[in-house]
C-alpha cells in the first residue's frame, strides 16, 4: 500500500473536499467513489503503458504497414518505384489458380495442424502430467526427460527428425518398422508422400512441444489439495470418478490456458517445415504452411507486397479463430 | 540535382524496414543516374569484403591481402570476412554508399547488385592482362550489356562421379569424355543394370540432402533443361522456354530415377560404396578422391538431345559502385587474380581456376589430370542465352529476376521429383516467372 507514492497528493485533495459538500450528506460518497474510479483508470493506463507501447510498436505499426504494403507492388532491393496495385495481390491470392492453389493449401495445412495438435497435444500433456504427478524416487529425472525436447531449438530437433523420417531403409523409423515387422516393412517416404508429410510434421511438433504444456499442467495439478482426494477415497470414489470430478475441475483454468496457448503456437508452424524442405525430401505442397509461404515469398523471391497480403489475410483469420475460441471455451473465473 | 536526389533515395530506401511509407514515396525517384566509380588517386586505403567459407579458403584470401599490403606501399587493403550464409543478405541490406571498394559476390546474385546500382563495371580499372587471362566462362558470367562487373578466381562445374569397381561389376559401359557421353536412355539403362547388382537397389546419389527446392536444385538440374534444348528463360519469357515438350519429357525421365536414388542422409552414400554414381559438382572431389582413389571416374551429365550441359559460375570479385578509389581497387583485383593467388585459392577449395594460365598449370584440371573433364566443359562456354548443341558450360540467367527464377524452378523440380505432373508443374513455374517479370518491367537494368 505505502509503495504507491505518486498517489499521495490525491487523498489530500479529497480530504479537503468534504467540507464544501457537507451540507448534502448523500453526496460525499459518490464523488469519492468516482475519484477512486478515475484513479484506477489512470493507474490501469499507467501500468499497461509498457505493454501497450510494445504492442503498438511491434505489432500495431508493422501490421499497419503490412496492410499498406499489400496494396503496392514492392520488391526488396529494386530500383523501381513501388507501384500502387490496389487489390491485385489479394485477387491473385484468391483467384489466380497458380497462387491461390498453394496459398489455400497452406491455409488448410495450418488448420489441419491446429485441429489435430491442439486436442492431441493437450490430452497427451495432461496424461503425462498425471503420470508424473506422484511421489516416486527420481521423479525429477523423469520430469526432465519429458521436458528435454522443449529445451532444444526446433531447428535442431527438425534436423534430427530428418534422420528418423529419412525415406531410405536406413531411416531410423523405417529400419525400426523393418525390424518389428520381421522384414515385411520396406522403405517408406514419410516426408515425400503427400499423405504422411503433414502427419510427420505434426508428430514431430507434438513430441517437441508436449513437455512445455506438461509442465504447466503439472503445476496446475499440484495446486489441487490432497484432502479432496482423501475425502473422495473415503467416499469410495473410483479413480475415474476422482479424475472426472476432482482433477478436471481443479485444473480447468489451466487446461483452457494450455489449449489456447497451443492453438496460438500451432498457427506459427514454420521452423520445422523450413528445415525439412531445405533438407530434402519434404513434399512442399503437402507440408507448406502460411508462415512458410509468407517468408519464402518475401525473402526468397523479394516479393514484399505479396508476402504482406498473405500475412494480412492470415492475421485476420487467426484473430477470427481466436475470438471464436474464446467464446466457446471460457475459464470459470471469467463468468 | 541528381546527386541529392540519389542520396535522398538511398536514405529512404535504407529506412524501408522501419518506415515503409516514407520509402514508398521516396524510393520512387529512380532517375537514371549511372553507377560509375571515381577513379581516385590509386593510393590510400581501400576496404574489401569477402565471404567466409571453408577455413582453407579464408586463409587463402587473408594471405593474398597480407602479401599485397607488403608488396607495395601505395595501397593498403583492409579485409572484412562476412559469414557465407549471411553474405548476400548483408550486401542486399547495405546501401551502395556503405559498401566497400572491392567486394566478392556469388555469381547469380551479380545482376541484382548491378540492377540496384551496387556494382560498377571493372573494365576501366583492371589491367588488360587480367581481363584477357580470365577464362571465357568466367567473363561471360560477369558480363552485362558488354560491360564486365565481376571476375572470379575460380569457376565451378557439374558431373557424375562413378565408382569404377561397381560399374565394371555390373557390366556397365561408361563414357570417357564429353564426346561419347551417355544419352538419357543409356543413363537410365545403366541405373537399371546397376540396380540388379545392388543390395538395396539404390545406385544413384543426387545430393538429395541439400534439398531440391534450393539453389542446389536449380544449379544441379537446370543442365537437364538446357540439354533438352530448353532454357530457364528466353528473352524475358519463361513460357515457351521452360515448359517445352522436350523439357517436360526430360524431367519425366529425372522423375523416373527417383527409385534408384539413395536419399544419402548421412552424406556418405558414394564414398562408402553404397551407390555407384553421384550427380554432383567438382567440390566433392577431395572427399571422393580420397575415398575411392583410382576407382574414381568423372563423367559428364547425360545428354537429353541438345548435347551434354553443365552449370557454371561461382564467387566473383567486383568494384563497389560508390568507390572513391577505383584505380586502387582495380590494382588489388589484378593482384588477386594473378597466378599465385588463384593457384593458392583453387588448391584450397579444389575448384577449377578461372584464369587461363592457372588452369593450364593446375595438376587437377590440366590435360590428363583427374578432373580434366571439368576443364573441357568450361572450355566450351555457352553464356547464359546462346545455348547451342556444341557448347557445354551454361551460365545461370544473368538477370535481376534470378531470385524468382531459381525459386520457381527449384520448387517445380522438387514437386516433380516428389511425383507431380512435370507438364503442369513447369507451366505453373513459367507463368509465375513471367508474371514476376511483367510486374517488374522485365528487370531492365536502367
UniProtKB/TrEMBL annotation, chain A:
Pfam families: BPD_transp_1 (PF00528). The keyword Nuclease does not apply. Keywords: Cell membrane, Membrane, Sugar transport, Transmembrane, Transmembrane helix, Transport. It is found in: Cell membrane. Belongs to the binding-protein-dependent transport system permease family. It is a multi-pass membrane protein. Residues 107-325 form the ABC transmembrane type-1 domain. It comes from Streptomyces umbrinus. Its main location: membrane. Signal peptide: none annotated. This is Multiple sugar transport system permease protein. The keyword Transmembrane helix applies. The chain crosses the membrane at residues 45-72, 111-132, 144-164, 197-221, 246-270, 304-324. Residues 18-29 have a biased composition (Low complexity). Residues 1-29 are annotated as: Disordered.
Automatic annotation (TrEMBL), chain B:
Keywords: Cell membrane, Lipoprotein, Membrane, Palmitate, Signal. Residues 1-25 form the signal peptide. It comes from the Bacteria. This is ABC-type glycerol-3-phosphate transport system substrate-binding protein. It comes from Streptomyces umbrinus. The lineage of its organism: Bacteria, Bacillati, Actinomycetota, Actinomycetes, Kitasatosporales.
Amino acid at each position: 500500500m505505502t509503495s504507491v507514492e505518486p498517489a499521495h497528493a490525491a487523498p489530500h485533495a479529497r480530504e479537503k473536499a468534504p467540507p464544501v459538500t457537507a451540507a448534502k450528506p448523500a453526496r460525499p460518497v459518490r464523488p469519492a467513489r468516482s475519484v477512486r474510479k478515475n484513479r484506477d483508470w489512470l493507474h490501469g493506463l499507467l501500468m499497461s503503458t509498457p505493454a501497450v507501447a510494445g504492442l503498438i510498436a511491434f505489432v500495431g505499426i508493422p501490421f499497419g504497414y503490412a496492410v499498406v504494403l499489400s496494396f503496392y507492388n514492392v520488391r526488396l532491393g529494386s530500383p523501381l518505384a513501388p507501384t500502387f496495385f490496389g487489390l491485385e495481390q489479394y485477387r491473385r491470392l484468391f483467384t489466380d489458380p497458380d497462387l491461390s492453389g498453394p496459398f489455400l493449401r497452406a491455409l488448410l495445412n495450418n488448420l489441419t495442424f491446429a485441429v489435430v495438435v491442439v486436442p492431441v497435444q493437450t490430452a497427451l500433456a495432461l496424461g503425462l502430467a498425471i503420470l508424473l504427478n506422484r511421489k516416486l524416487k527420481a521423479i525429477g529425472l523423469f520430469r526432465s526427460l519429458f521436458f528435454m525436447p522443449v529445451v532444444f531449438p526446433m531447428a535442431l530437433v527438425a534436423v534430427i527428425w530428418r534422420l528418423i523420417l529419412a525415406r531410405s531403409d536406413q531411416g531410423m523409423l523405417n529400419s525400426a518398422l523393418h525390424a518389428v515387422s520381421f522384414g515385411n516393412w520396406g522403405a517408406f517416404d514419410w516426408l515425400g508422400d503427400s499423405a504422411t508429410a503433414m502427419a510427420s510434421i505434426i508428430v514431430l511438433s507434438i513430441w517437441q512441444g508436449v513437455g512445455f504444456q506438461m509442465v504447466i499442467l503439472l503445476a496446475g495439478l499440484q495446486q489441487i489439495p490432497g484432502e479432496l482426494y482423501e475425502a473422495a477415497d473415503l467416499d469410495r470414489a473410483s479413480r475415474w470418478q476422482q479424475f472426472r470430478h476432482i482433477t478436471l475441475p481443479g485444473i480447468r483454468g489451466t487446461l483452457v490456458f494450455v489449449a489456447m496457448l497451443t492453438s496460438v503456437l500451432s498457427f506459427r508452424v514454420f521452423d520445422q517445415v523450413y528445415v525439412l524442405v531445405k533438407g530434402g525430401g519434404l513434399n512442399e505442397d503437402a507440408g507448406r504452411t502460411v508462415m512458410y509461404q509468407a517468408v519464402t515469398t518475401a525473402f526468397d523471391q523479394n516479393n514484399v507486397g505479396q508476402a504482406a497480403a498473405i500475412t494480412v489475410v492470415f492475421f485476420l483469420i487467426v484473430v477470427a479463430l481466436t475470438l471464436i475460441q474464446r467464446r466457446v471455451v471460457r475459464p470459470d473465473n471469467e463468468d | 540535382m541528381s546527386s541529392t536526389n540519389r542520396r535522398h533515395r538511398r536514405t529512404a530506401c535504407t529506412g524501408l524496414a522501419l518506415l515503409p511509407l516514407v520509402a514508398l514515396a521516396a524510393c520512387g525517384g529512380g532517375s537514371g543516374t549511372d553507377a560509375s566509380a571515381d577513379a581516385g588517386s590509386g593510393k590510400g586505403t581501400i576496404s574489401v569484403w569477402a565471404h567466409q567459407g571453408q577455413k582453407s579458403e579464408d586463409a587463402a584470401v587473408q594471405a593474398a591481402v597480407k602479401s599485397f599490403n607488403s608488396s607495395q606501399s601505395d595501397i593498403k587493403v583492409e579485409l572484412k570476412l562476412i559469414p557465407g550464409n549471411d553474405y548476400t543478405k548483408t550486401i542486399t541490406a547495405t546501401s551502395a554508399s556503405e559498401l566497400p571498394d572491392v567486394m566478392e559476390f556469388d555469381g547469380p546474385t551479380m545482376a541484382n547488385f548491378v540492377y540496384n546500382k551496387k556494382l560498377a563495371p571493372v573494365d576501366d580499372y583492371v589491367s588488360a592482362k587480367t581481363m584477357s587471362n580470365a577464362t571465357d566462362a568466367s567473363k561471360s558470367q560477369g558480363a552485362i550489356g558488354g560491360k564486365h562487373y565481376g571476375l572470379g578466381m575460380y569457376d565451378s562445374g557439374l558431373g557424375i562421379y562413378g565408382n569404377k569397381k561397381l560399374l565394371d561389376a555390373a557390366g556397365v559401359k561408361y563414357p570417357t569424355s564429353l564426346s561419347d557421353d551417355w544419352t538419357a536412355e543409356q543413363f537410365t539403362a545403366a541405373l537399371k543394370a546397376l540396380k540388379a547388382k545392388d543390395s538395396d537397389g539404390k545406385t544413384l546419389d543426387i545430393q538429395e540432402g541439400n534439398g531440391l527446392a534450393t539453389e542446389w536444385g536449380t544449379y544441379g538440374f537446370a543442365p537437364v533443361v538446357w540439354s533438352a534444348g530448353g532454357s530457364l528463360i528466353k528473352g524475358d519469357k519463361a513460357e515457351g522456354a521452360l515448359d517445352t515438350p522436350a523439357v517436360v519429357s526430360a524431367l519425366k525421365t529425372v522423375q523416373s530415377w527417383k527409385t534408384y536414388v539413395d536419399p544419402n542422409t548421412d552424406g556418405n552414400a558414394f564414398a562408402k560404396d553404397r551407390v555407384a554414381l553421384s550427380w554432383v559438382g567438382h567440390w566433392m572431389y577431395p572427399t571422393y578422391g580420397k575415398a575411392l582413389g583410382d576407382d574414381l571416374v568423372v563423367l559428364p551429365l547425360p545428354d537429353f538431345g541438345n548435347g551434354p550441359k553443365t552449370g557454371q559460375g561461382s564467387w566473383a570479385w567486383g568494384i563497389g559502385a560508390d568507390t572513391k578509389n577505383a584505380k586502387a581497387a582495380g590494382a588489388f583485383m589484378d593482384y588477386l587474380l594473378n597466378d599465385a593467388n588463384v593457384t593458392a585459392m583453387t588448391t584450397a577449395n579444389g575448384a577449377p581456376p578461372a584464369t587461363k594460365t592457372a588452369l593450364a598449370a593446375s595438376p587437377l584440371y590440366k590435360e590428363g589430370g583427374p578432373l580434366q573433364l571439368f576443364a573441357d566443359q568450361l572450355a566450351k562456354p555457352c553464356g547464359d542465352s546462346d545455348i547451342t548443341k556444341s557448347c557445354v558450360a551454361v551460365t545461370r540467367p544473368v538477370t535481376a529476376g534470378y531470385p524468382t527464377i531459381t525459386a520457381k524452378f527449384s520448387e517445380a523440380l522438387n514437386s516433380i521429383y516428389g511425383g507431380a505432373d512435370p507438364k503442369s508443374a513447369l507451366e505453373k513455374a513459367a507463368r509465375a516467372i513471367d508474371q514476376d517479370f511483367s510486374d517488374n518491367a522485365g528487370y531492365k537494368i536502367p
